[in-house]
Every structure is written in structure tokens, then in C-alpha cells.
Amino acid sequence: MREVDLGCGKALLIKESGEFHAVGHKCPHYGAPLVKGVLSKGRVRCPWHGACFNIGTGDIEDFPGLDSLPRFQVKIEKEKVYIRASKQALQTQRRTKVMAKCISLSNYNLSSTNVLIIGAGKGGTWWDHCVCPLRGRDAGRGCLCSMDSHPEQITLRPKDFFCTYDIEVLTEMQVAAVDVKTSDKHLKDQEKLCKGKEMENVFNIRTPEDANRVVKLATSKNVVIVGASFLGMEVAAYLAERAHSVSLVELEHVPFKKFFGERVGRAVMKMFENNRVKFYMQTEVSELREQEGKLKEVVLKSGKVLRADVCVVGIGKALEFLLMNNKKVNVPHWQMAHMHGRIAALNMLAHGTEISTVPYLWTAMFGKSIRYAGHGEGFDDVVIQGDLDELKFVAFYTKSDEVVAVASMNYDPIVSKVAEVLAAGRTIRKRDVE
């Protein structure tokens, strides 16, 4: 692979099996240079977050991301390679597929097939991208229903995109019940669900509004975060430079133990402690003390009392499940949400498709990114290469003799390489990485 300059933009030139291909050089998701990614059997995988693109068509084949790559014409003359591309494609470095429209409400009829998608996040948005091209012009109504009312700057698609394809979007709505016999759905306004009195400075972060309120209230204040997994640790990292103090309460003796293992978890914990985050491990909250309806103190089972102007509860699971060997597996992350939406849409359209992907996730804290691929639940050993103290390492998670997952920091593109091997159905043995 080679990144080539065409004057008004760049392209990724690829030669595989004697054939040349040219596509956009940046991943549409976050702008990663694909030349630093992994090329394997007709597709290139992003080095940062694992999105995969067909090198012949530019189409996105695995996620994250909504858009595909532009594809450019390649011609070989007298042992020279010529690439023909439009200025617009070179400048945008992304391509949105043209889709068939749903039936607008004004043209709706009772014989149409109608689809209600509950949730307008990544899975729901990918339903639109799969269903609309496949349904044809006889498509029925398509409606996205969401409890949230997102600020315009963080919506996955602009408002005019949904208008163009006659997709209805209902915000601040919750599905209260679904009648599977009549296919009736009953919606509730968000406002009607907000009952009961809660302390106004205790949060579960589920919406952008929650996050904005936490940042506003936490600035120069004492923050207690319950749970040292992804949500809790990411919130702690963000607030460390903004709050007066940040304390993390966790049942385990190191953060991320079940996910990354003890050695990696301890290295991450040290990084947080170097950034003024205080840990209270192997304990839990026994009481939240309030004064005039506001939280003032968090009492731990150990007897320790923490001053708290804001408390963020980052425990519990959001129940996004997939089947792995007929077992329910929780992989609540961006890439899997994309794939769930695509597979659900294809099967709703009778295009019987089984899910086939390698979970790929990442987190960023204090300017450092941890990338992870595979499914390492129940791993029995971790093989470390690199230096944990320097935060430059790769960790291979094994069950018996087989590598089932990999995590890295400052070791790109190793996680994408392993993901491609696993996606091809090949086995990596423990002895291969020791």
C-alpha cells in the first residue's frame, strides 16, 4: 500500500494479487491514515478503530463508521499507474451510498410493510443504511424512535439526511410496550417518566444532557465515581483536570481486572494516580448522605467518608447482547452496535445472515489509547510484550493454548493485525506470542 499525492488530494494505492486499486486514504470514521492499517484478502482495516473497507469497491464491511471510501479509476500504461479522481472525492475522502426512499407519511397505505426502530443510536442508524437500499421503491414507513434529544452537533446524521429519505425521527419518546400479535407500539413522552425525587447531583450518564450537567457541576468540586470500568474511568480521566478532587470506588483491587487483567489494570491505575485520581479499592458505597436534597458525602463500607459535591454511578450493564457459541455475551461498544444494526436489518428483510465479526473496541484516557480486539471473557493467562511501566505494550489473552483477545497501548497496528487473523478464522497459539 502507498499513499500518493494527486495534487488536490491524496489516494491510497493498493496492489494485491497483481491488481491495482485506488481508494480514499483516510478512514471516514476518525481520519486515520489507512496506509498504516492492515491489508488482507481484498480489504484494508483501519489501524485505530478496526473499520474495514473493500479495496475494490470502497464499501465499508466492518465498523465503526457510516460512510464508505471513494473509489478511483486506475489505468496501467507503459508500466506507469494512472489514477483518475474527482476533486470533490479527494477533498471529502468519504462516500455516502445512495439509498431508496421510504414511503412518506403523506403517501402511506395500510398494505405497506412498516418498520419501527427503537433507539436512534449506531445500531438504529445502520438499519436505515441496510434497509433502504434493499427494500426497493415499495418500501413502507421507516421510523426511528429515541428517548434522547441530542444536540445537533453530535447527531450521527444531519436532519436533512433523514428528510431526504423520508425517514421519520421521533425524539424524547420511549416505547412502553410492544404487542407482538398486533404489532402495535405504545409510546410515552419522556417527561411523563420523570417521577419521584432524586438528589440532583447524583448521576447515571446515559445521555449528552447528563454528561453536560456533570461537567458543569463538577468543575472545581469534589467528585466521587462508583465503578472503575470503562464509564467510570473515562469520566475520571476527563474530570481530573477540571474537578478539585476525583475519587474512584471499586469492588476489585485493580481497575479493569476482569477485562484487561491485573497487570494491565495496575499499569492503568498508576497512570491515573499520577494524574491526581484517588482510588478506594475492594470496598463499596453503603450510604449517600444528603443535605437539603443535595449529596454531601459518600460513606463507604470500609467506614471511610468522602466529601462529594457530585457522584457518578458507573456500574451495571446496558443489556446489549449477542450470541457467541449459543451463549449470551455482553459487548456494549460502538463497533458491535454497528454490526447489530446491519445484521438485524438484513434478517428483517429475509436476507438470512449470521453475525460474523471480531469485537473491536477502544478507550482513551489522558491522551493514551487502549485498543482491544476479540472476546477474552474467562481468559486464564496474559502474555505481555513491551513495557507496562512505559505504557507501550501489547497483551495477548489466552485460554489454554489459544489467543482469544489482544489489547495494546502505543503499539499500533498490532490489534488490527490480530483482528484480521481472527476474522479469517485462523488460530493464534500461545507459543506464537510468548
TrEMBL record:
Function field: Induces apoptosis through a caspase dependent pathway. Reduces mitochondrial membrane potential.
UniProt name for this protein: Apoptosis-inducing factor 3
Primary gene name: AIFM3
Keyword Iron among record annotations: yes
Subcellular location per the Swiss-Prot or TrEMBL entry: Mitochondrion
Transmembrane segments: none
Naturally occurring in which organism (per UniProt): Catharus ustulatus
GO cellular component: mitochondrion
Family classification: Belongs to the FAD-dependent oxidoreductase family.
Pfam families according to UniProt: Pyr_redox_2 (PF07992), Reductase_C (PF14759), Rieske (PF00355)
PANTHER family: APOPTOSIS-INDUCING FACTOR 1, APOPTOSIS-INDUCING FACTOR 3
CDD domains listed in its UniProt record: Rieske_AIFL_N
Keywords carried by this UniProt record: 2Fe-2S, Apoptosis, Electron transport, FAD, Flavoprotein, Iron, Iron-sulfur, Metal-binding, Mitochondrion, Oxidoreductase, Transport
Annotated Gene3D superfamilies: 3.30.390.30, FAD/NAD(P)-binding domain (3.50.50.60), Rieske [2Fe-2S] iron-sulphur domain (2.102.10.10)
Domain Rieske: 1-83
